[in-house]
Amino acid sequence: MRLPAILACVFLLAACGSLPRPFQPEEKAPPGALEAALGARAGVFVEAIPGLDAAQSERLTAALVRALHARDVAAGRQTSNRASYRIAAWQDETGRLFWSLAAPGGTIVLQFEEAVAHEDSRIEAAAARFADYFNPPEAVTETLGAPSRLTLSVQAVDGAPGDGRASLTRAMRRALAAYGLQSTKSLENADFVVLGSVYLADAANSSGHQSIAVDWTVLSPDGARVGTVNQSNVIQKGTLDGAWGPVARVVAENGADGIIAMLERVGAIH
User: Is the distance from CB of 148 to CB of 188 less than 8 angstroms?
Assistant: First the structure.
């Protein structure tokens, strides 16, 4: 397989139509990958619930993370950083949960008590309240400046074999810069955050090949997910275990094309 052709197709979240099968994976990411790739680095951190036993707290917070993902809010329970919002809950003597959302600086921006008692319904209701805060209809475009001032924070790529973490990250920053966008490592003062994740697996019915998928997820600084560009293909096993070389540039340039199209679609670039 010719490497310059690897991962040459992109998929935009919520875009119309579908891609030809060799480039369309069965799933967008392995189970749990969204929490690992997004929630641990930006977006919303869901804290453990004090007063509950560990198993119950884990069950409720994991369910909340899943419900937030379903509503396009990047959330996780692993780690947080200065760009993360924080969701906390506490239980009163009647067993009712009270929820709060703190902005990165610590200011409480949302508080409410659960409206329903059934565990599944209470989590879905809480997730809906948080998602309404993060994803109002005009949230993506209302505070953006001129396109020439648009700054994207491109974070280090996760999961890439060989030197892909460094070379693919660097190539994406260069590819976006070629469009006239400013690129930065910092999460502060960025209009959008770009998170890249690479997934490798043994290809079905082939011992000498492996499938590779690259997801480029674009978030607003508050963790609301704008969309995901997905690239995938099947390669010979071990092809990318060393230096990616020109493959990193090809992958990044095609990924950047999808990111630009996404930003144009939501009105961030005209």
Answer: no
Res 157: pLDDT: 92
pLDDT the model gives residue 45: 85
Among 102-106, 172-176, 219-223, 244-248, name the most confident range.
172-176
Same domain, 109 and 169: no
Joined together, the tokens standing for residue 31 give 């189970």
Q: Quick one: 129 and 158 in the same domain?
A: no
pLDDT at site 82? 60
| Cβ atoms of residues 262 and 82 within 8 Å | no
Asked whether residue 155 falls in the same domain as residue 261, the answer is yes
Q: Which domain holds residue 54?
A: 39-134
Contact 153, 95 (CB under 8 A): no
How far is Cα 11 from Cα 254, in angstroms, rounded to an integer?
Answer: 11
Radius of gyration (C-alpha) of the chain in whole angstroms: 20
81 and 112 inside one domain = yes
| Domains identified in the chain, total number | 2
Cut 0.70: pTM above it = no
| Strands 75-76 and 97-102, bridge-based pairing | unpaired
What's the 3-state SS for 78-133?
CCCCCCCEEEEEEECCCCCEEEEEECCCCCEEEEEECCCCCHHHHHHHHHHHHHHH
Contact 65, 39 (CB under 8 A): yes
Final residue before a domain boundary, out of 134, 156, 177: 134
